[in-house]
Amino acid sequence: MPRQSLKSLKESSIRVDSSSLRYPTTELIAPDPENSAFSSAARASRRHHRYSDAGVDAEEEYARKYVSSQSSVFHRSSTKAFPRALLWRVLENRHVLDLAPCDLTIPDEISPASIELHRVRITFPNPIKPSCVTFNEGYGDDLIAIDVLTESLALYTFAFNSRTFTAEWNRRPLAEWCHVQESAHFNLRPPHYMIALPQGSLVFALLDGGLMKLDRSQPLADDYLEQMFSDGSYLASIKGMFLWGSSDRVRGHPTASANLVVSMVADPTSSILITASISNVLKLWSLDTLTSLNAYDIVNDERRAQQPANTKQLLGIEPMTLISLTKVSDTTGYVATYCPLGEDSFKLWRLDVTIGETTNATLTDVLGVPLKPSTPDENAIWVIPDFVLDYSGRLRNGGALDLWILWKSNKTSKIHALFDIPTEKGSKSSLTWQSVGSSAVESASGSEGWAYAANEDDTERFIRHIFQPGLFSPAILETILPIYERHYSILANTDGNDKVFEPEVSLRKRVIKIVGAAVSLQPNETNDGMDYESYNRDLQQQWSRFERLCLELSKQGNEALSLTRDPSTKTIVLVRATTVSVVRACGGLEYADIAGTGNTISLVDGSVSSDGFSKDQVVLLLSALNSFKRSLPQPVISDFLVAITEDALTAPNFSTGDRMATIYDSCLNDQISDSAIDMLHKRLYSIKDLEDALDGCYTELASLTGTPNFGRPSLITRRHLTLVGTELLSSAIHDSILSTYQGLVDLLLFLVVFTVDVSEDFNADHITFYDKFLKAFKTTAFLKQLTETVLERSSGFRGRQSLSDGDLLSNSVNKLELSKNSMDRNSFVPGGTLLQFLYSRFSLGLGCACATDLITSGGSLGVGKAVEYSMSYWSISDVPYAAIAAAGALVASGYVNESMPLLQFLPVDGLGCYARGRVYLESGHFDRAATFLMKSTTDMASKPLTELTALCLREFLLMDGPGMSTATLGSGIMRFSSHVSDLLFGKAAYSHATEFAKLALDMREPEVDSTVTDKLFTKAFQAALSGALYDDAYMAMTNISEHKLCHDLLTAFVVTLCASGQSLRLCNYAFLGLHGEVEAILEQTARNTVDLHAPSAPNYYKILYSWRIEHGNYRDASSAMYEYIQRLRSGFTRPSLETPDTDFNTFDIEVTQGYLVLLSTLSCIDEKPEPWFLARRADAGLLESPVKKPKTGSPTAKYGRLKRVLVKLSDVEREYAEELARMEAILNRQLVAIEV
User: Fold this and answer.
1) DSSP string of 795-822?
2) How far is residue 412's CA from residue 925's CA, in Å, rounded to a whole number?
3) Dist CA 53 CA 168 (whole Å)
4) Looking at residues 239-261, what average pLDDT do you find?
5) Is the pLDDT at 1047 greater than 50, yes or no?
6) Cα–Cα distance between 466 and 927 in angstroms, integer?
């Protein structure tokens, strides 16, 4: 955690509208009490938000659907309940109540795979009354009672439980989940607003200044009890209702009393109610007797407390937050009250409750002086809509209090805080207001000041900025896109492009298409080329215009609505119209973003001063360096950014000083003016010690430069992050990294300029600082990549495989527990960031366990602690284990293209080359994959597999399936090469697989037995044969010692060569000792062929004939050709040879040609009195079908069995003559038909 300077707090926010927080939605319709035939059915759950076509009032439509008018977070008291936090938002012109779980973590007892978080939307027939939505869990049994009062004064009560938000809605009768009642009292005494009591009751503040309590046994019960509070001022207000000219009325509001209660807080541990009225009267009430106990002035002004209500300056009648209560024990607590009149000020009280036969309570002024807040600036009118008092529990003079206040103007909002407020007078002399900085995304007002690479074009740069996480929601982009197209894009006037919405095309591609179509490339007027300069200028202008439109629309959601505190984790939550933020401690260099001063309050006399704070030296340094960078042209900064990125990600070949000089000469030489240097010197004069300031900057980067926490999570919890948790943590890390990234660019720029240009000689300390900051810059660039890369749906997914216990290095590797599903559906959905994906993918691993524990138990700044830990976990400053694990997770889930940018962060050692090779292998770049895998062979085969190595490679190992054993890594070149060969073979990279199989054979150990050797030869044979490397396949096959295996491979080799048209190559191989087997294989295959002329099938009889001729066996060659002729004459293959264009079949020509070849072969046999050979022939002169067991209707059954006969030359000549005569007869019949 960074050192505590005055400005060390910051917001981290996420968007929570339905287009950003994409839960499956259950839509319910609240009944209309005026319609007895209302329908209570709940509509089906919907999973995807559907955008309507933008009309003329697209902005109003966006505000109605997505911008809430009222919103807050309800925190349940039970730490084991889930969900604990419910975000409620009022939408659709106050007709819809939207309820969404917003927990950051899932409890230990709940398995994420067993639940799916849901959103509930309730539509009302009448608008919801302001400040009339309450939550109550006082009925037990996991029941959440939600009460809503509408403008028609109908009180709706909904009874939900945890399953309502963790499972699909189960249709049930209306009476089981909804109840509507209309109080008779409301007709005479209209309610103003209401709160829920911890015991399950409701308290209504009435317009006439009174209070009413509604008691009920169950939330949906028809029997309830309405009771009025009794008080003298209330009786006077009742009297005033019936007397004309009463002085108790509020000017401009004839129905409102001067005693109207506008703020109420109930004590959660006793029956005490605290109220504040518009006449600044603070009252304590007993909820048991419904009577007033004590009354005070809201800021303890005794003179004003004695004035009648009608003579006081009154507040507005709108419900507001004027009271905040925090309990220390059952009988003691502290109350902060606020008076917005005059000089705005807070008052701190101690609440003491006496419990006996009758309950009594008193308030005591703690400090004796008011706490005056300081406005964020003087350029706007600021109001305080909400504040929170928190008892920190720190043992400092009996404990300390923290006061968080929310400032709001018409444009923005800000959180201020007072820490360590003493609970006793005189224990502290002063307090200083501390400002909480806005998130980096919310502070972004445009593209000015970006640090981007020179090789990045305008479209890539703007798309990266516009689609950065949390800046613009999909709803904003979908709303602006048709507006922009209608006014600026040429596609609006093109036929067939009336609608922008294309569900099959991603939003990013549609934005690029529409904005890019607004500019066209024109010829250059001065030459024959194209005017690229004007095109780029116009394109940048269009992108800036589109961004400004999005910024203007997003301002509708910037209104701050409430400030709450989680009583369990102490997290401070700010709810805006479209976002939710939490306050956290800053990390890295980001606290420089909120440098400034705060007002100091004297606890002696209450005076306020603003000169009690001196800026931190680190803040002064970073501010000066940032101003110096902004004085340089943007192209210079872009070139410098490219140079230092290359320097950080490339293994150094020269000294640091030489590299700095090279960067300066290539990017900065002659680009920096003397005035910029002078201004830098002037600003550095205010820094007492430059070396100490630089060292302070490096100290702030401890989480990025220290020993990474990767692989060492202390699994003291089994909590998982939810979708909100992953988005919030990713957003917080992104904010911290964005500020740190800019700060490191400023520091590196300063060091290069100051060392090379300003100093006459290289400063060894500055060179050392350059190396340190460059190492931190590498990790920062990696984390920036994780938080800015948005993942859409993957192009392909490889399911997880489970590894057996024997496949793991040790049980300690199992501590990285992986989800059963590819991704946790409660913590990641497509469209999230890469970091969110990694947290959901690895579930308990990769620092997620510690992050969730820190969020849960880290106090009000627990999120900041989780950010620090996570940044340290993902550090790649020394060994980039995290980068390898991230690349493996992406590849295993089908995000292969998205994993490619991570390769630049991998090292050049064996582990990095192996990971590169695996990524390239999945992407189809087999040559690159084989190159890197070959480079990794020595290291990966010789170095033992450590726990961290197995951890970062686990995703790759899971992809390989159960057959992959970690024993192949670090166990010698033979095993590793065999493993790589399997990987390449599985991707059909057969030539490279053969190469690694041969390497495994060459590097096999002497003690390896013949069985292992045969397996390696078999692997080499399969790879070579599949890759048409027949020579390698032949060599592998002939080296196999086992006869049966060799015969099987020989059969595959012969058949493959014949099928590939390589019969000539087959005949050229020697086949020492296998000659007879090859001939038997060819002969058997030829006889097993049913259709000798099947398309693309080899003719094995001809191949067998050629084989025997090649080896001088003319007699057996004649036998093969004769058998082939007999098969043709048998007619078994005639159907495949018949053609409609010939009068006699093609097989007749094949027969005659066969006889000629046979006669020629017999002439080569020197035999007296005539050549002869042995052949198989059927009894009827026809041969049988090759089917071994004849069936009914088969050729064998028809023509009988074959028998071996002696065939002489004269027999062949006779058969040849008969065949010629048959063909002549066929031709003669054709001629007679022609003459006729």
Assistant:
1) S------PPPGGGSS-GGGGGS---SSS
2) 51
3) 29
4) 66
5) yes
6) 36
| 635 Cβ contact partners less than 8 Å away, ≥ 6 residues apart | 454
Collapsing DSSP to helix, strand or coil, 562 comes out as strand
Q: Which of 822, 856, 845 has its CA nearest to residue 725?
A: 856
Report pLDDT digits (tens) over 910-928. Answer: 889 999 999 999 999 999 9
**CA 968 remoteness from chain centre:** 33
What pairs with residue 430 in β-bridges? 602
Mean pLDDT of all residues in 1145-1161? 85
Please give the radius of gyration of the chain, using alpha carbons only, rounded to the nearest integer.
42
DSSP string, 1041-1096: --HHHHHHHHHHHHHHHHHTT-HHHHHHS--TTTHHHHHHHHHHHHHH-S-TT-TT
The answer to whether the beta carbons of residues 600 and 708 sit under 8 Å apart is: no
Rounded-to-integer distance, Cα 232 and Cα 237, Å: 9
Using DSSP bridges, classify how beta strands 253-257 and 261-266 pair: parallel, antiparallel or unpaired. Answer: unpaired
> Using CA atoms, how far apart are residues 1145 and 1129, in angstroms rounded to an integer?
11
Residue 716 has which token pair? 């003291």
Strands 323-327 and 85-91: unpaired
Q: How many CB atoms lie within 10 A of CB 1049?
A: 22
* Backbone phi, psi, residue 405, to 5°: -125, 150
* Residue 485 contacts residue 494 (beta carbons within 8 Å): no
* Arithmetic mean of pLDDT, 1176-1185: 54
Mean pLDDT of 488-501: 54
Residues 6 or more apart from 1177 whose CB is under 8 A from it? 1126, 1183, 1202, 1203, 1205, 1207
CA 1199 from chain centre, in angstroms, equals 72
Tokens coding 874: 């993902």
CA distance 1231 to 10: 104
Kindly list the distances between the CA atom of residue 309 and the CA atoms of 240, 249, 250, 779, in Å, as whole numbers in the listed order.
13, 10, 10, 63
CA terminus-to-terminus distance, the chain = 110
Nearest-5° angle of CA 415, CA 418, CA 423?
Answer: 145
**DSSP H/E element including 556:** none
Q: Could you tell me which of 301, 171, 179, 283 has the C-alpha nearest to residue 231? A: 283
Selection from 180-189, 296-305, 450-459, 599-608 with the highest mean pLDDT: 180-189
Task: Look at residues 407, 438, 385, 428 and name the one whose alpha carbon lies nearest to residue 600.
Answer: 428
- Has residue 409 got a pLDDT over 80? yes
Give the percent of the chain with pLDDT over 70.
80
Continuous segment of H or E residues that includes residue 353: strand 345-354
| Phi/psi of residue 161, nearest 5 degrees | -135, -175
Q: In degrees, to the nearest 5, what angle opens at C-alpha 1098 toward C-alphas 1093 and 1101? A: 80
Q: Using CA atoms, how far apart are residues 120 and 163, in angstroms rounded to an integer?
A: 12
Residue 1172 amino acid letter: W
Of residues 916, 208, 63, the one with CA closest to residue 552: 63
The pair of structure tokens assigned to 742 is 């800019």
User: Strand order in 281-286's β-sheet?
Assistant: 261-266, 272-277, 281-286, 291-297
Q: 839: which 2 tokens?
A: 């947290």
Q: Which of 873, 861, 871, 875 is closest to 4 using CA atoms?
A: 861
Report yes or no: 387 and 334 within 8 Å, Cβ to Cβ: no
Q: Is the four-CA dihedral 155, 161, 163, 166 of positive or negative sign?
A: positive
CA–CA distances in Å: residue 704 to residues 744, 768, 848, 868, 1140? 12, 17, 17, 9, 80
273 pLDDT more than 70: yes
Please tell me the distance from the alpha carbon of residue 739 to that of residue 737, in angstroms, as a whole number. Answer: 5
SS3 194: strand
